[in-house]
């Protein structure tokens, strides 16, 4: 009987235990949008049992005891805990955004760090921002979103390069930051924006870990990867739209032009060219002829990602096709990309990472940004001329003195322009991580870039009426270029915690090699004078002069680096790093450089004396100082090479040959950047407000100055020859950065985020030791001195010319003023009055002075995002204040067309004190002066977008986890007083930038897009 009781008790307990064990499951979604979240870690608390949600956000666990606590964790969201009972084994979990956890881990180079522990000036742009901005090129996403970063366009033509400047222009050489893609050196502008997970910008001494390539700042790109334990996720994004110009210049119509020309000829004592203007009307609007409307742009992007508990993968492809608003297909750009990312846990200790990207693009270009460009001709050709003559052929612009010999019909120019550029690139990396012992991880990575490009440019035999652009003999120029590099990184990271002391030590080395070659050749007499036959293999003509060229290069860099990161209780933070680089770009004695840096931080809000102030949730003071380098110069500057041209006498005959090119400088070495930064990070009002402010000083020493004057005996004026490059300059950038972000969820249906950032910058040249004390650059008009300079005590590239003081109203004012005849002509009433800067009683070249600065005093961005139920709205703006621009797109010939501001010209005493008279006679009005320098400050609405996401309950019926439609406008409007096409454009030259030669305008783009996730 006793045994029966024991059996009954055993069965009861077994039944009880079985009854209290459950199979649980459910779905995890975003609280704000209701969208499923794949990859969420679902763990039974205090056990090793767990799983990750699949692509649909679903999970299941079997045999979970009653009372167990299920913990849900995912980066960017608050940790959520759920207690298992008999009544709640089917869960519907809503996870909330965690402002503290967003971007918690930040890539800093050869490792990562929690945001709260970062002691350098680091900014991050995430994939959500990229999704809103829809940039064609990644660089555009940094404009207005990151303080201290300024992005300028060299042209609005599709595929044109963009210039990034981090904390100002520090050198007259290469100013672009280095881009590191998943650990290897890459090219930012070639990436598909939808492949990017995050962009990290290192702005201060934190970048010293990269040594000679870190002086201009470093941009770290992290690409997207798959999630563990998730089903395949398919994402398709597409947009299509049309483009138009964002700005047109106000030119004179035919009647206004004829009347003005008559007045000009009359003032010059010449017969009137138009005796009857009544039937001219408005004439031809040449801007409308060359700038098109409704120009298409289309983009497709498809990605597939997922993973198991050991392997994750991501595969993507994209296609972009964009025509130009000037010339349409003649300035088109097509880009295709493909990417494969694979990560695998080979064992518990060994991990494999791979990422390979293929890029192909085709680009066609028109003549732009200079004398004789398409837009230059469109602005200067008279509106009285028709595009076509009576036979339907292009009208020929008369070759007269008043129109010069370079203004031609821009439509004919577009039609006769034929070129093609094809580029293919394969790049990526392969990496291994091995956990040797607890806390010690060994890492190695091989990164590579291999690209091939082919170019073809056809010059059709054509006559424009005796102009300089006439082509007497048809020709085709073809080029083939191969560029390669690889980097091998091997480093060890050791993490150790001793009581409240935390240490992270990293040591390693990098081997970098780049090599390549190029070949260019020209063939003459193309069959049928046709683009269809434009190939060197088909040409039949020969030329006595050299018609081909080639080059090859092989450069290497060997580096060792180390970094120690320390913190005590997460409150006191220290970091020290040093890098040793040896580069073959420099000669014996200068190959090796050492680049140390130190950073420190103090989390004040963790101190006991700080109290429990709920208004200030986080406060960190940080500082950094270090030395970085810049070796981004042409190769082999320290040796003499036979790269020039010369003519020799052999056997009594002149023979073309080769001569020494750039004069060697064996003492050449890298530029040195000394960076100082002190910053403060704040989070306020329950983490709703974030404030980051930095004060910085960046001093660039040993600038690599080209064209140092030397003796003419060396023959450095021969074709292909040049003066040496010498370390002979110092430039300092100093400034203040401030950014504030506000995020708040006002209700279950409405949330908003607002961001504002501003950067104040001062640029000053401290030293120029090239013999003359200054360096000139840029060009203005025809035959005039260079308008830009680099000179001690002034900003790099400042404008150097004459100051003006209004317009002479009568002869008495002229008689009382110093003579201006040295500028080219005696002054007359209605002419510009120049200032005698040095007070020597005469106006001459000695009176030239600082008349403008192309570098903005301040740049800022304002960004707003709002979500209401299924609607989302975003607007991004950017402003530049204090930058000047030179108006150099007007030809000063008497018969060229003009902008309509000339209608306010001086026509008699008291009529105008700002715009001079018009005349065909000789004047000094066209010499470079502040009359041609304008305030180019502007505010631009960069992007505005409205989207609607279909209710997940509806979209899931057809197995779609997300369906979003949106409409947006890029480059909506620019508020500015500048008369030209784009106040934010630049030609990329530190000395000579800010000079407008007729910039191709950045288009306004209207987009309609669709995002679908399966």
Question: Could you give me the name of the CATH homologous superfamily of the domain at 105-224?
Answer: TonB-dependent receptor, plug domain
Strand content: over 45%
User: What is the quaternary state of this protein?
Assistant: single chain
Q: Compute the number of strand runs.
A: 51
CATH topology heading of the domain at 105-224: Ferric Hydroxamate Uptake Protein, Chain A, domain 1
Shape: globular
Q: Radius of gyration over alpha carbons?
A: 33 Å
- Helix share, percent: under 10%
Q: Averaged pLDDT, please?
A: 90
Low-pLDDT ranges: 5-19
Alpha-beta content class: mainly beta
CATH architecture of the domain at 105-224, by name, is Beta Complex
Number of helical stretches of at least 4 residues: 8
Q: Termini, distance in Å?
A: 64 Å
Quickly name the level 1 CATH class of the domain at 105-224: Mainly Beta
Largest sheet: 22 strands, antiparallel, barrel
